[in-house]
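hey
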């Protein structure tokens, strides 16, 4: 299955969401879809907040890769653009923060050194290792494959992908991923996303974009939570 060849046969373009582009640290390398622009037009979505680790910076861009001018020949006009996606309360800080952020973007994109990105991926790699190692100590949560990119662990569509499966049969009085998440938040101040919120019942989503020592503490609390609610044998 080849995305670019398939879309070419269908006569459609590729829209590639690459906000997590380059955030890889396993055996799989990141390949931007734009390199296939000579085969099929590609519209790529990028973002500051993920690769530069600045959550809250609602700033991104759209870039086309269409060296053969297919979109132009069809009369379709695309352009490099900056998109601001803000909540209503963000407008209160418009003059102080958003304009400053937009003004900083050229400097950020052009002058960030590779050492910065290497450090980020090293931290994520270490945190992913900690995540999988510590989750082995929590019997009700299964993580059979270590993440190799991004900053989350969750089910990704097949058994050979990163996932966190919740096993209720080992727990007393917890019968859904929502109950697990709510009790964990109330008792241990640890926040996980119940899979039901994205249509994946009985799964959990955990972020490991956390300073490693703090992450160790958090996973330790999850372990204590499990043993407090584990069914008595």
């Amino acid at each position: 299955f080849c995305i670019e060849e398939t879309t070419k046969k269908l006569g459609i373009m590729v829209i590639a969401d690459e906000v997590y582009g380059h955030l890889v640290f396993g055996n799989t390398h990141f390949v931007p879809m734009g390199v296939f622009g000579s085969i099929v037009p590609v519209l790529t979505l990028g973002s500051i907040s993920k690769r530069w680790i600045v959550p809250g910076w609602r700033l991104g861009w759209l870039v086309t890769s269409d060296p053969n001018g297919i979109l132009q020949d069809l009369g379709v006009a695309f352009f490099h653009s900056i998109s601001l996606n803000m909540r209503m309360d963000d407008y209160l800080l418009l003059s102080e923060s958003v304009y400053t952020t937009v003004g900083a973007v050229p400097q950020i994109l052009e002058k960030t050194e590779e050492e910065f990105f290497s450090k980020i991926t090293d931290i994520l790699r270490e945190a992913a290792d900690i995540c999988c190692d510590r989750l082995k100590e929590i019997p009700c949560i299964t993580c059979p494959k270590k993440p190799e990119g991004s900053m989350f662990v969750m089910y990704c569509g097949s058994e050979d992908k990163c996932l966190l499966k919740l096993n209720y049969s080992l727990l007393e009085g917890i019968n859904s991923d929502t109950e697990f998440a709510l009790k964990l938040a109330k008792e241990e101040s640890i926040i996980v996303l119940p899979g039901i919120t994205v249509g994946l019942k009985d799964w959990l989503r955990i972020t490991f974009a956390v300073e490693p020592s703090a992450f160790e503490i958090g996973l330790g609390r999850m372990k204590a939570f499990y043993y407090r609610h584990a069914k008595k044998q």
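Residues 79-96, 157-161 have pLDDT under 50 and may be disordered. The longest strand covers residues 59-65.
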